[in-house]
């Protein structure tokens, strides 16, 4: 008892020391926020940082003059960073170490030989397969497809079909292209999804619209609509889903995000080639679990995902404008790290606009500070990434070592308990798997481990159980017979007594 | 005929859904002590159901433990049922006394209580694929208790079938009203308490000077 108490106290003291160490070390590294993660009940708890701010880079550092509200960045397959410098009407290309500008695209040669300039380009994409640059030339209402030398190959403008409402503007804000050369573009004030163009530049329709969330209001509006005249219906407020804000391409899948703060469903989607959302049936939640309440403005701040990026190892980085945080998820949408804040210092953002990843670094573009912030992976982050990618590829046992290392560094890291439990289950250590599954709050893993443990237990103790059963049943029969006998005896006695 | 001890009466009432409570009434049997034990067991059963369930089925939020919901789900609900039924059936020419309503209703709850404990124990032996057994047990327990409760009200007040249905519906309404008033009363008391404490704080600051 005493030793237990003592052990408890030492554990608490050690934990306190560790916690204070962790906080102070994070502060020493210069992040203007304390990193956190979520525990198994969805409460925020302090955690080790997966990324730490390294430096910020401005246009002046690159020797090309200050950026003016840049809106998008993109890494091509050669590690070159394309910056859509919106206010300066140009695309700046630099290497990933920011040694200086490799190239600036501000003039393009049209197929007929004339020159053309950009006007507020908001999105840029480079296709590795085709060697082409795709630019969302927003204020010119067109998408430019150019080769690396600045010769325009193709121009996509407002489609002249019935499918596209001609009263609406055509303001491309983000653009991606798939391997086949199909071009997808996010348009301002269009909520029916991304516009899709064939490699020949023909409009093919819309792709991946968001769903309307079935809130109580919409359900009641629907029923009220049943009793309304057509005229009245036409004058009602319409419920439309919010449009896509940004997207990124990963192999055959397109990931989209939506910055609407009122929308809870479809904030992040993984679309296949047919435009079907693979995340739709999973109960996933992106961003902070609890919206932040600001008492000075009497407002709730819900997550607003303005950009999404898929890193090379499949991690999903979502940039939340409201909190200035990058939420990193693994392929299975388990939260790995939360990085960043709204702050003035390095590592904080005023107006976070775009996120990209290259190797073990994260790049976040701030369109108000006009800088790019570079986050580098910590050693903790690299262990978690290694473990998560092994785990997601099905190498549970190989992931055991890294996960245990993660737990050594951060005992609150829930994902690691899931990893250890799965590895132990695969190994056949059911008892250990049960223990870790319990800590991870993973009922399904626990269920499997328990099934195995029960089978093991029955096998080991079969003779004892069988013997107990036989003895028990035998005993019951004997007792029953005895009671019956006694019962009849009592009855006859009673009868005799009555007769007397 | 029917010379049974109090313990045997419990068994008789539970295993004879139609006649059991009639016999009990005829023989003026039923013990308040046993009724109280059943309700206490219900209370602990609810706690076990909420906290000690097998981990493969249900994950409890064990950061904090709040006993109030469990008290409400056992003592308060049962009390509201008994008082509600008594007040309704006094107006509907019921013959049951408060004591009898309490005893009979508690006896009727036995299958439900047994089901709670059985399921908690089974949840540590079964896996998710075998959950259907626990569902069956739960279904039987709840159904049996419902039938017994109906039969108990019917015999304690000597009602016809139709009138019992009416009484049960009215009792549920009465329970609802009572609980509503209780919540209203509590929040009012809270407001008054806050008012008094504010006045006190204010005075204590002024009185110092």
Automatic annotation (TrEMBL), chain A:
What does UniProt give as the signal peptide span? 1-28
**What molecular function terms (GO) are annotated for this protein?**
zinc ion binding
Q: By its UniProt entry, which InterPro entries does this protein fall under?
A: 6-blade_b-propeller_TolB-like (IPR011042), NHL_repeat (IPR001258), TPR-like_helical_dom_sf (IPR011990), TRIM-NHL_E3_ligases (IPR050952)
Which keywords are on file for this protein? Membrane, Repeat, Signal, Transmembrane, Transmembrane helix
List the transmembrane segments.
462-482
* Alphabetized Pfam families for the sequence: NHL
The cross-references to Gene3D superfamilies, in alphabetical order and at most eight, read: Tetratricopeptide repeat domain (1.25.40.10), TolB, C-terminal domain (2.120.10.30)
| Keyword Repeat among record annotations | yes
Report what the protein is called: NHL repeat-containing protein
Species whose genome carries this gene:
Ruminococcus flavefaciens
TrEMBL record, chain B:
* Topological relation to the membrane, as annotated: Multi-pass membrane protein
Instruction: Reply yes or no: does the keyword Transmembrane apply.
Output: yes
Q: Where would you find the membrane-spanning parts of this chain?
A: 32-50, 70-92, 104-127, 133-153, 165-196
Enumerate the UniProt keywords alphabetically.
Membrane, Transmembrane, Transmembrane helix
Recorded GO cellular component terms are: membrane
**Location of the protein in the cell:** Membrane
Instruction: Using the record's annotation, list all stretches that form the Yip1 domain.
Output: 13-181
Pfam families found in the cross-reference section: Yip1 (PF04893)
Q: Answer whether the UniProt record assigns the keyword NAD to this protein.
A: no
**Protein name, as recorded:** Yip1 domain-containing protein
Q: Which organism is it from?
A: Ruminococcus flavefaciens
């Amino acid at each position: 008892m005493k030793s237990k108490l003592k052990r408890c106290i030492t554990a608490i003291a050690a934990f306190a020391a560790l916690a204070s160490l962790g906080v102070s070390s994070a502060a020493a590294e210069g992040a203007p926020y304390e990193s956190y993660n979520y525990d198994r009940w969805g409460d925020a708890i302090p955690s080790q940082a997966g990324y730490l701010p390294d430096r910020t880079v401005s246009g002046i550092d690159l020797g090309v003059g200050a950026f003016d509200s840049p809106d998008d960045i993109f890494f091509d397959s050669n590690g070159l960073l394309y910056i859509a410098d919106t206010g300066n009407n140009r695309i700046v290309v630099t290497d990933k170490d920011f040694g200086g500008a490799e190239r600036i695209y501000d003039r393009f040669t049209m197929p007929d030989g004339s020159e053309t300039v950009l006007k507020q380009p908001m999105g840029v994409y480079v296709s590795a397969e085709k060697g082409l640059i795709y630019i969302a030339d927003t204020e010119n209402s067109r998408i430019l497809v150019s080769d690396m030398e600045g010769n325009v190959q193709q121009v996509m403008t407002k489609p002249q079909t019935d499918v596209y409402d001609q009263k609406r503007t055509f303001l491309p804000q983000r653009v991606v292209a798939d391997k086949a050369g199909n071009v997808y573009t996010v348009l301002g004030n269009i909520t029916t999804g991304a516009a899709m163009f064939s490699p020949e530049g023909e409009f093919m329709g819309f792709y991946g619209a968001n769903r309307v969330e079935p809130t109580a209001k919409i359900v009641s509006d629907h029923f009220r609509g049943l009793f309304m005249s057509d005229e009245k219906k036409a004058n009602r407020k319409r419920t439309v889903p919010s449009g896509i804000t940004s997207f990124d391409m990963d192999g055959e899948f397109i990931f989209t995000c939506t910055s609407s703060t009122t929308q809870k469903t479809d904030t992040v989607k993984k679309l296949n080639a047919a435009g079907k959302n693979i995340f739709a049936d999973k109960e996933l939640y992106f961003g902070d679990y609890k919206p932040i309440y600001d008492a000075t403005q009497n407002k709730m701040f819900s997550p607003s995902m303005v950009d999404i990026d898929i890193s090379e190892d499949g991690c999903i980085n979502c940039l939340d404008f409201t909190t200035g945080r990058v939420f990193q998820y693994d392929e299975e949408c388990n939260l790995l790290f939360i990085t960043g804040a709204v702050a003035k210092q390095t590592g904080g953002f005023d107006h976070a606009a775009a996120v990209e990843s290259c190797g073990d670094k994260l790049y976040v573009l701030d369109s108000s500070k006009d800088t790019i912030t570079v986050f580098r992976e910590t050693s903790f982050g690299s262990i978690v990434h290694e473990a998560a990618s092994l785990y997601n590829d099905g190498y549970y046992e190989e992931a055991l070592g890294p996960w245990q290392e993660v737990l050594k560094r951060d005992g609150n890291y829930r994902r690691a308990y899931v990893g250890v439990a799965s590895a132990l289950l695969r190994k056949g250590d059911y008892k250990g798997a049960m223990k870790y599954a319990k800590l991870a709050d993973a009922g399904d893993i626990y269920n499997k481990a328990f099934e195995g443990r029960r089978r093991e237990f029955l096998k080991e103790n079969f003779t004892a159980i069988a013997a107990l059963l036989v003895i028990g049943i035998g005993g019951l029969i004997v007792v029953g017979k005895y009671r019956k006998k006694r019962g009849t005896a009592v009855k006859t006695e009673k009868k005799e007594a009555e007769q007397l | 005929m029917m010379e049974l001890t109090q313990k045997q009466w419990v068994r008789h009432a539970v295993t004879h859904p139609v006649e059991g409570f009639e016999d009990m009434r005829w023989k003026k049997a039923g013990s308040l002590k046993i009724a109280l034990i059943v309700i206490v067991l219900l209370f602990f059963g609810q706690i076990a159901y909420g906290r000690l369930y097998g981990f493969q089925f249900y994950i409890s939020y064990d950061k904090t433990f709040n006993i109030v919901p469990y008290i409400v789900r056992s003592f308060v609900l049962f009390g509201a049922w008994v008082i509600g039924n008594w007040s309704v059936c006094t107006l509907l020419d019921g013959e049951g006394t408060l004591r009898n309503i309490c005893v009979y209703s508690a006896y009727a709850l036995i299958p439900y209580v047994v089901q709670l404990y059985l399921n908690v124990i089974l949840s540590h032996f079964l896996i998710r694929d075998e959950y259907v057994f626990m569902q069956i047990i739960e279904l039987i327990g709840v159904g049996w208790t419902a039938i017994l409760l109906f039969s108990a009200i019917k015999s304690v007040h000597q009602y016809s079938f139709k009138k019992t249905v009416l009484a049960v519906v009215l009792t549920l309404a009465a329970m609802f009203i009572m609980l509503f008033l209780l919540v209203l009363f509590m929040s009012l008391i809270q407001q008054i308490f806050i008012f008094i404490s504010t006045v006190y704080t204010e005075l204590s600051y002024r009185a110092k000077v």
